[in-house]
Design goal:
The chain is of the alpha/beta class. The protein has 16 helices and 12 strands. A 9-stranded mixed β-sheet has the order 4-3-2-1-5-6-7-8-11, with helices on both faces. A 3-stranded antiparallel β-sheet has the order 9-10-12. Strand 1, helix 1 and strand 2 form a beta-alpha-beta unit. Helix 3 (109-119) packs across helix 4, helix 3 (109-119) crosses helix 5 (143-150) and helix 12 packs across helix 13 (322-331). The protein is globular.
Length: 409
């Protein structure tokens, strides 16, 4: 079977309160359609009993090949992997993009209740399902991560875990495992991993995905329900299939923000494209800063909090914008080593060719000084997640040790 230049995959876990947005996004894809150079393939798990379907998207939806799968569990890693394997077999290409269109809008209480009942959650009440759906656990990507939470012995333990359920710990580990399998299926890293979901432009996520994708395009902030403008994203791809991957990733950032400005959206929107091969440009100075902060503990604890409370944060105060935090930390003038390290971190987050951040854009209130990448950083007197240590970033770098010292002081 001849390979096309691109296969653009969109995995739409829409059996939730985002189902109508999925119909809109499919219409946007159909306004462009597949070409002789570009396959546009989508799997959509629709709300209720409408089931799951796979499409080779065609312009206007005319003569569109469709495979009906019946009801599937799109929150299960196996369902995603089956979609990627089927796509690679039927629509091979020189380059692959995979967009995870998922539960960024949150799990509904009824879904939480079904999951808790399935795993036999102890000391469980229906009220807890409502609480969890409104907590950071509501943003989790995979159903298996929620199952792990509900298997904990009591609601108190589940609450601690949920405090870190914003795309970290359990969920990020699961994402890394899935991407490792995608790598095996394709025989190569993804050219672009897109996250049409909330809060996923995050250093811990990037570190977990590092071996399995070349570029990530994602939002630091929660996304509006409209998500990506697939008509604008795909128009560029089918018009210029020879475009370098980095340029295509950067264009997604540009058209995403433009689409919200054009509709006069009043909320905050962010989007970032990062080059995973250049991650050391950020992690090296960040390690130096963490080490310098560690050596200066406990006297720097107040300065860290001063910087932290002035920086942008996301989703229940679990994620902080790295650039803005370092900008405020530099103003604290703690000592030369910390100040210089904070400057180097900010420099590493400047967007442009050859850097870790290819492109970054934002609009709306509260994100004016954001640099495009968040990191796990809790307020004082908060409990660090017991699962954070399982992340590759926590294992390979100095941030966790700094967090432990900070929170013990």
């Amino acid at each position: 079977m001849d390979k096309r230049k691109w296969t653009f995959m969109v995995y739409m876990a829409g059996d939730n309160n985002l189902s109508s947005a999925g119909d809109t996004d499919l219409a946007e894809m159909r306004s462009v359609g597949s070409t002789g150079d570009v396959n546009i393939v989508a799997e959509f798990d629709n709300e209720g009993d409408r089931g799951t379907s796979r499409y080779l998207i065609q312009s206007g939806g005319l003569n569109e090949p469709k495979v009906s799968l019946g009801e599937t569990d799109s929150g299960a890693p196996g369902a995603l992997l089956d979609f990627v394997e089927w796509t690679a077999k039927n629509y091979p290409a020189e380059r692959y993009a995979l967009v995870l269109w998922n539960h960024g809008g949150g799990w509904e209480p009824s879904e939480m209740d079904r999951i808790a009942q399935k795993v036999g959650a102890r000391s469980y009440s229906v009220r807890e399902a409502g609480e969890r759906s409104a907590s950071p656990a509501g943003k989790l990507f995979f159903r298996t991560s929620l199952e792990t939470i509900f298997k904990l012995r009591n609601p108190k333990q589940r609450a601690i875990c949920s405090d870190d359920g914003s795309g970290h710990s359990l969920d990020t580990v699961e994402l890394g495992k899935v991407l490792a399998q995608v790598y095996k299926i394709l025989g190569k890293p993804l050219d672009i991993l897109g996250m049409d979901a909330c809060l996923m432009s995050n250093l811990e996520v990037a570190c977990q995905a590092r071996r399995y994708a070349q570029y990530i395009v994602a939002s630091e902030e929660s996304e509006p329900g409209e998500g990506w403008p697939y008509d604008l994203v795909l128009k560029k791809l089918v018009e210029s299939p020879q475009l370098p991957t980095a340029d295509f990733a950067s264009n997604i950032v540009r058209v995403y923000i433009k689409s919200y400005k054009d509709r006069n959206y009043k909320g905050a929107v962010t989007q970032t494209a990062i080059d995973l091969a250049k991650m050391n440009l950020l992690t090296d100075p960040l390690d130096q800063m963490a080490e310098s902060l560690l050596r200066a503990m406990p006297r720097v604890s107040t300065s860290i909090w001063n910087a932290q409370r002035k920086a942008a944060r996301f989703w229940h105060n679990t994620l902080w914008d790295i650039a803005q935090f370092c900008e405020e930390l530099e103003k604290e003038k703690i000592n030369k080593q910390i100040t210089e390290a904070a400057k180097r971190v900010q420099a590493a987050l400047q967007p442009g060719d050859g850097g870790f951040v290819l492109a970054e854009s934002h609009a709306g209130p509260g994100v004016e000084r954001c640099g495009g990448i968040s990191i796990y950083l809790l307020p004082p007197l908060s409990d660090l997640s017991p699962y954070y240590k399982d992340l590759k970033f926590a294992k390979d770098h100095r941030w966790l040790e700094m967090l432990k010292a900070y929170h013990s002081n």
